[in-house]
Design goal:
Layout: H1 13-30, H2 42-52, E1 58-65, E2 68-76, E3 79-89, E4 110-111, E5 114-116, H3 120-139, E6 145-153, H4 164-170, E7 178-181, E8 189-194, E9 196-205, E10 209-210, H5 220-232, H6 243-251, H7 253-260, H8 264-269, E11 272-280, E12 286-287, E13 290-299, H9 305-316, E14 322-326, E15 335-336, H10 342-354, E16 360-364, H11 370-375, E17 380-382, E18 396-398, H12 399-416, H13 425-429, E19 448-449
Parallel strand pairs: 3-6, 3-7, 7-17, 8-16, 15-19
Antiparallel strand pairs: 1-2, 2-6, 4-5, 5-18, 8-15, 9-13, 9-14, 10-12, 11-13
The structure holds zinc ion (ZN).
């Protein structure tokens, strides 16, 4: 048995039992590998379904591509009300180079305040939290207003086409009035939006020759590097961001950067270009006749995919030896839920009461499946535990983070579904003192918003 003394001292006995079961479930999920690429979620979906077994929970599975099993679990309330969709992903990053792990990557080892393993924070712990929230709602089905739907999906790490995107398009009850997600983050920051992304492939053609006879060749890598550096000038471009959004991000910068890292604000407000891969040449004494680069470009709203393509096209006109394309399936528009939306304010209020008194709400740099829900017109928030060592060796999540994330998700779900007394949307929006609200957004075009 685990040591309950690691839990917050004000946990009730019932809550301590719930937390213990979340931790054990997190360990079981980690110990059921679902590395993607590969992306087989059959076994981990079975673990999730077992954990969801409850007389008031209807469970369905959908497998739009062999191996990509998505779990949809549903609790119908006894009274009319909104639909809350909780979203988590079952696939994980690959373990990577095992020699760099000092802890077992796929055992779900719990030591002190930590649970180690690939997917611990991204997002086995979040899945276990959402499963336990749904069970807790199911226990009170008779008092529930509306319904709760938990979607535990495949294919998140590779774009979501056979996971969340498929469910949104094909399963009506996977579209919610509110969408919440417990993917990796930090319980001090509620995340309401994400930047846009586009991956580019650049190819240059030159003329191969011996490296001693450079006058007879045309070095394709030289032309490619010049083109990449030209695209990188996008980093210096001043982006015209809705002033209310800029203010909202600026106001929370000092706290958000304590968890997101110094420079997060500038990153959120600007275009980033990462040259992630180069392929060219064989040996020093040959002139490469062809070369390829792959770039990751991220951009804030109201810039759109079309805007970025236009800018890149204009830049690369001066580089006729280089052709370029947007890598298929890689582009996604920036999307955010109004930071003043009742869902965001409700999360913020509970995060301040139950996790950190100075919790803030902000944009998120990396992508989650919540973007797919936002782009389909649904308000969505990410609130999850810190994934220490995210994507690298010795990934772990802390018990304290899991406790905070569970308390806040449970409180938000209870409030939205009428278990804390039925509230109206108008009363939600009065949840914070006026001085802490960021004001209604103007309706500037270009970027999607909910
Ligand atoms: Zn994730």
């Amino acid at each position: 048995m685990s040591d309950l003394s690691t839990l917050s001292s004000n946990a009730t006995a019932a809550e301590a039992t719930e937390i213990e079961s979340i931790l054990e479930l997190t360990q079981r999920l980690i110990a059921t590998p679902s590395e993607n690429p590969g992306g087989d979620t059959i076994a981990i979906a079975a673990v999730a379904c077992h954990a969801l077994t409850h007389p008031a929970i209807e469970i369905e599975t959908y497998e739009p591509k062999p191996g990509c099993v998505n779990v949809v679990a549903r609790v119908h309330g006894a009274h009319p009300g909104p639909r809350l969709v909780m979203n988590g992903h079952l696939d994980t990053y690959p373990v990577g180079a095992r020699e760099f792990w000092t802890q077992p990557p796929l055992d779900g080892l719990r030591e002190g305040d930590r649970i180690y393993g690939r997917g611990a924070g991204d997002m086995c712990a979040g899945d276990a939290v959402l499963i336990t929230v749904l069970r807790s709602l199911a226990d009170r089905q008779e008092q529930l207003h509306g319904e709760a739907v938990l979607t535990l999906v495949a294919d998140e790490e590779t774009g979501g086409r056979f996971g969340s995107a498929w469910l949104i398009d094909n399963v009506e009850h996977c579209r919610g009035d509110f969408v919440v997600n417990a993917d990796a983050g930090h319980p001090r920051v509620v995340r309401y939006g994400e930047k846009g992304v586009m991956w580019l492939r650049l190819n240059s053609l030159g003329k191969a020759a011996h490296g001693a006879h450079t006058h007879l060749g045309d070095n394709a890598l030289d032309s490619l590097m010049a083109a990449v550096q030209a695209v990188q000038t996008l980093r210096n471009r001043e982006c015209v961001i809705d002033p209310i959004m800029r203010t909202a991000m600026h106001d929370v910068q000092s706290i958000s950067e304590q968890v997101g890292g110094k420079g997060e604000y500038d990153n959120l407000c600007g275009i980033t270009v990462n040259a992630g891969a180069f392929h060219a040449g064989l040996v020093p004494n040959l002139v490469p006749g062809s070369a390829e680069a792959m770039l990751d470009v991220r951009f804030p709203g109201p810039l759109s995919i079309a805007d970025i393509k236009k800018l890149i096209g204009e830049i690369l006109e001066a580089h006729p030896k280089v052709t370029w394309e947007v890598m298929p399936g890689s582009a996604t528009e920036p999307a955010f839920t109004d930071p003043n939306h009742p869902l965001v304010l409700t999360f913020l209020r509970h995060a301040r009461a139950l996790a950190y008194p100075d919790a803030v709400a902000n944009m998120r740099i990396g992508l989650t499946d919540t973007r797919l829900f936002r782009l389909a017109g649904m308000p969505a928030v990410v609130y999850g535990p810190c994934a220490h060592g995210l994507g690298g060796p010795d990934e772990y999540v802390t018990v304290q983070d899991v406790l905070k994330v569970y308390r806040v998700h449970r409180a938000v779900a209870e409030e939205l579904l009428g278990l804390q007394g039925v509230r109206t949307i108008a009363r939600f929006s009065e949840a914070l003192p006026a001085g802490e609200r960021v004001g209604a957004l103007s309706n500037a075009g270009g970027s999607h918003r909910d």
